[in-house]
Amino acid sequence: AAAPVTVTVTGAAGQIGYALLFRIASGAMLGPEVPVKLNLLEVPQAVHAAEGTVLELLDCAFELVAGIDVYDNPAHAFDGASLALLVGAKPRGPGMERADLLAANGGIFSVQGRAINDGAADDIKVVVVGNPANTNALITAAHAPDIPASRFTALTRLDHDRAVAQLAARTGTGVSAVRKLAIWGNHSATQYPDISHATVDGRPATELVEQDWIRDEFIPRVAKRGAEVIAVRGGSSAASAANAALEHMRLWVQGTPEGDWTSMAVPSDGSYGVPEGVVSSFPVTTSGGSYKIVPGLEISDFSRSRIDASVTELQEERDGVRALGLI
Ligand code: NAI
């Protein structure tokens, strides 16, 4: 049998954690051949609740689970980790200023970055889910100087999947007909869901939908879908976020299918005019455990202005955490 892969999940007692852990344990992320050792990290006051989730994980008798431990110490939780899903974060409380939020999360992600630097396996892959996800990934990477920054990514696959679903519904096709959709920029309301290069059943998506629909309905609907879910469900996206985080990691490890790509927020290499180091979403292909920003795409004036607006927001977030001494 293959050696177990150590997977660290933070925020294990939260609602995304609850939707995520059982699927990882069932093999949905790494496949039916790969045993997993689950390291769960929580804040001390939520360790007990995480232990409750562990009781249920054990009660599933998942054959692929090689062990489960709950920690409140990041140094222990990331020891030997090959995959880390950083879900736990500090939500914005009532009356909390933006700088307070950045500072609170900066405290969390700088400590976790250091623990990853010191203890994680050489092949560590990190996805940050906790918001502000892109900037939290930037902070984490900054505190792990011995690990290539490219291993620190943030989740925009949920936005990608939301966009795929909307385009499929609009064109009356199944989601599997949609290829080459891209999310650019920040996981926030400024994000740019881009169908300029997308195809539906092999036909250019831009020939199947109106520009007005793209601008006035599609883009805002995808960008504000999180708020729509809260308004209707009475709680924030959890199972869909967990599914997307799992897909982000699955594709990074197993590779994107031929003729398609995914969206990931990754440290920019300067591609498409996004300043180097800014953690921005791009269309990427993955293979052999690494990813590559899709090169050479033609960017229209409309796309350019949308990408620039979101990247400007990311630069402001970066300036904010720099001013706080967090990077
Ligand atoms: P939740 O509040 O239900 O759970 C968060 C958990 O994280 C709590 O159990 C909390 O104790 C834990 N936590 C806080 N600080 C921690 C630390 N330093 N170490 C370990 N655990 C810690 O929240 P939920 O719904 O699970 O969401 C988690 C995060 O994911 C939020 O920041 C949310 O905004 C974000 N999110 C991101 C999405 C994306 O697409 N990037 C989509 C949906 C949510």
Automatic annotation (TrEMBL):
Domain Lactate/malate dehydrogenase N-terminal: 6-146
Domain (Lactate/malate dehydrogenase C-terminal) ranges: 156-319
Domain of life from the UniProt record: Bacteria
One GO process term, biological-process aspect: tricarboxylic acid cycle
GO terms, molecular function: L-malate dehydrogenase (NAD+) activity
EC supergroup of this enzyme: oxidoreductase
EC numbers: 1.1.1.37
Catalytic activity, as annotated: (S)-malate + NAD(+) = oxaloacetate + NADH + H(+)
Binding sites annotated in the UniProt record for substrate: R92, R98, N131, R162
Residues given in the record as NAD(+) binding sites: G11, A12, A13, G14, Q15, I16, G17, N105, Q112, V129, G130, N131
Record key words, sorted: NAD, Oxidoreductase, Tricarboxylic acid cycle
Active site per UniProt: H187
Function: Catalyzes the reversible oxidation of malate to oxaloacetate.
Family stated for the protein in its record: Belongs to the LDH/MDH superfamily. MDH type 2 family.
Protein name listed in UniProt: Malate dehydrogenase
Species, as recorded: Arthrobacter terrae
Primary gene name: mdh
